[in-house]
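Milestone 3.1: sequence recovery, worked example.
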């Protein structure tokens, strides 16, 4: 897909959406943006050449391709289809037949599979393309992007994705991108919790936490948390890695939903979901997910 020949709509100018939209502009794509918080849109428009839509229907009418980067699939569906799928005051109320929606949010894959036929009935195509590597990856244009949907659409959109990330994967049919994103974040969340428990136990045994991390990183216990989070955000007590406890808890719940729907084993993911739900309640959904370290320390 060549964004230079058509305007791209971008809904969701938040912590991730802002740098992603900026990178699309830098790559030469023409953008119209919208966010429920007009200050977010205004801030991006002050530094980058973008048009700001005053409403979702205005954006849908002007753009043949629309990207959504929103907190969850329920919000995505309302933005695209209106309240209770009434198709009022939404993107697809005015979008031309043949339009394309790319949902880059962390949505439920089961919800995505339901949404596809609803949009198809209105002549709108849908692919899912959630991302990993966080705000830093969004700023640097080094996101990992996992795409679900029609393979031809994936290939058409590849230049657009390459403006945002340096690792782009075709995951499979519609919903596959959202599925692997949630499952990846479950593995990440489980590894983070295990690392926190090991650090607390080791420190109380008398080990230096910094030495614990160094040894883990030189051994089979190395993971994303030991490499990129413990010293940087936990031991430093900065707790500002840029991804919230609420979003992590949501992704683990989604992974549990997938495992249950597919009839797979769920013992560990059930426990992990309960742990993150508890952290979300006690630390607050807006807290940084690295706060799990402090949460578990206090709980112990």
């Amino acid at each position: 897909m060549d964004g230079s020949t058509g305007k791209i709509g971008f809904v969701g100018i938040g912590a991730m959406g802002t740098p992603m939209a900026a990178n699309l502009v830098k790559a030469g794509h023409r953008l119209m943006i919208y966010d429920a918080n007009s200050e977010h849109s205004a801030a991006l428009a002050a530094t980058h050449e973008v048009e700001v839509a005053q409403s979702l229907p205005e954006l849908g009418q002007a753009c043949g391709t629309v990207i959504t980067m929103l907190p969850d699939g329920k919000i995505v569906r309302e933005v695209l289809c209106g309240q209770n799928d009434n198709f009022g005051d939404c993107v697809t109320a005015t979008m031309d037949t043949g339009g394309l929606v790319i949902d880059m949010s962390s949505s439920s894959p089961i919800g995505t599979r339901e949404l596809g036929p609803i949009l198809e009935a209105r002549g709108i195509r849908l692919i899912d393309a959630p991302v990993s590597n966080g705000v830093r990856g969004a700023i640097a244009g080094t996101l990992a992007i996992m795409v679900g949907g029609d393979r031809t659409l994936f290939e058409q959109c590849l230049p657009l994705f390459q403006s945002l990330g340096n690792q782009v994967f075709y995951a499979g049919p519609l919903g596959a991108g959202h599925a692997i994103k949630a499952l990846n974040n479950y593995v990440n969340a489980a590894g983070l919790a295990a690392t926190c428990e090991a650090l607390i136990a080791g420190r109380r045994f008398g080990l230096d936490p910094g030495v614990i991390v160094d040894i883990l990183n030189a051994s089979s216990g190395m993971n994303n948390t030991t490499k990129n989070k413990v010293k940087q955000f936990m031991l430093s007590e900065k707790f500002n890695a840029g991804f919230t406890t609420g979003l992590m808890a949501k992704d683990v719940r989604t992974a549990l939903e997938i495992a249950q729907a597919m009839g797979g084993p769920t013992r560990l993911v059930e426990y992990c979901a309960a742990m993150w739900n508890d952290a979300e309640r006690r630390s607050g959904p807006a807290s940084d997910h690295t706060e799990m370290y402090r949460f578990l320390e206090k709980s112990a």
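Residues 199 and 209 are 6 Å apart (CA to CA). Confidence is low (pLDDT under 50) at residues 1-5.
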